[in-house]
Specification:
By secondary structure, the chain is an alpha/beta fold. It folds into two domains: 4-183 and 326-345, Rossmann fold (3-Layer(aba) Sandwich), CATH 3.40.50.2000; 184-324, 3-Layer(aba) Sandwich (Rossmann fold), CATH 3.40.50.2000. The protein is 46% helix and 15% strand. A seven-stranded parallel sheet has the order 3-2-1-4-5-6-7, sandwiched between helices. Strands 10-9-8-11 form a four-stranded parallel sheet. α9 (219-232) packs across α12 (296-308). The longest helix is centred in the N-terminal third of the chain and has 18 residues, at 72-89. The radius of gyration is 22 Å and the shape is globular.
């Protein structure tokens, strides 16, 4: 059987869901049916390399001039390189991820004669990030790009509603496919590894968060909540997993709050299953106690409730697991992307 050649283009393979999805699909989408290639741009300063952390066998093709920031000179160079690359590989499907790759990659795909073009939105910057004039320009640009796309992939209902309200694409062109992760190791994780690393006994309350250390993640709120929790539970310890541009600022904040001795910055880690396995409370999570955005006092209160009420913590953990698995497992992602590609190719 002749394999379908797929070229996946992503702006950068920084730590996060989009890079995980791009790597996972390139690596694990049925190799007997698909000849998958991954093209990626350059990482930004202090961004972790998801390809290195996953120890993946995928060897990406790097287009170094493809960067997140707007740079006419580098963007033109990246576009030219993508056209040359796609004309050489001659893929039947080009699938782009993230905004810059979605812009340059989709236009390059059409100029190169790709049979089908797909773009996945992993969130967007069409509301609230820029001034009104620039936002309108980006909306118009995304509407045009949707017209030259065969399918637009949304990762969830809220994003679908957002795309429809902005009239980016018709409902018929949008397909919802949740992010997929390798969740099996998290169902029965090893316990005690992180606590041994930190020198903590089993009874010590351990609260953590896993995120890029960038403004949108609100890690300063986590630290301010940790300060409040520590005032009531001085035995509690806190871990922050991840790295990024705000690390030094956040370390300074921990010192200013006089909790530096109770907070450990672990940096980028690949052993997330073991880390989650030892945490008593994870902040923030989608299935749990909802609190107002940016409210450190409310976060601290929710953490204290979880630490003091074991039955509540167990109910929340069980509900979160049932919500996530198997909906966000890699098996679901692989099956849905395979079905999408077959539909596009009429096979």
């Amino acid at each position: 059987m002749t394999r379908t050649r797929v070229v996946r283009i992503i702006t950068r393979l920084n730590v996060g869901g989009p890079a995980i999805q791009a790597l996972l699909l390139t690596e694990q989408l049925d190799p007997s049916r698909y000849d998958s290639h991954l093209v990626a741009g350059s990482l930004g300063p202090q961004e972790g390399d998801m390809a290195a952390l996953r120890a993946t066998p995928v060897v990406p093709t790097y287009v170094r001039s493809l960067v997140r920031e707007i740079s006419p000179r580098r963007d033109l160079a990246a576009f030219a390189q993508l056209v040359v690359l796609l004309r050489r590989l001659r893929p039947e499907i080009v699938h782009t991820h993230l905004a810059k790759a979605g812009l340059l990659g989709r236009v390059a795909a059409r100029l190169s004669g790709a049979r089908s073009v797909v773009h996945t939105f992993h969130g967007n910057v069409l509301r609230g990030y820029f001034g009104p004039s620039r936002s309108r320009l980006f909306v118009q640009l995304e509407r045009y790009l949707a017209q030259i796309s065969d399918r637009i992939v949304s990762i969830g209902p809220r994003q679908t509603a957002d795309l429809l309200s902005l009239r980016i694409a018709t409902r018929e062109k949008i397909i919802e496919i949740p992010l997929g992760l390798e969740l099996a190791p998290f169902l029965a994780p090893s316990r005690g590894l992180l606590r041994r690393e930190l020198g903590l006994a089993d009874h010590v309350p351990l609260v953590g968060t896993v995120a890029r250390l960038v403004p949108i993640k609100g890690i300063d709120v986590f630290l301010r909540a940790a300060h409040r929790v520590h005032g009531v539970r001085p035995d509690a310890r806190f871990v922050i997993v991840g790295d990024g541009e705000l690390r030094r600022q956040l370390e300074d904040l921990a010192r200013d709050l006089d909790i530096a001795s109770t907070v450990t910055f672990l940096g980028w880690r690949a052993d997330l299953a073991a880390i989650y396995g030892d945490l008593d409370v994870v902040v923030p999570e989608g299935s749990g106690i909802l609190v107002p955005d940016g409210d450190a006092e409310a976060v601290a209160s929710a953490v204290m409730r979880s630490l003091s009420d074991g039955a509540l913590a167990l109910r929340l953990a069980t509900a979160a697991r049932d919500h996530v698995y198997p909906r966000y497992d890699r098996s679901n992602l692989l099956a849905m992307i395979d079905a999408l590609y077959r539909d596009l190719l009429g096979t």
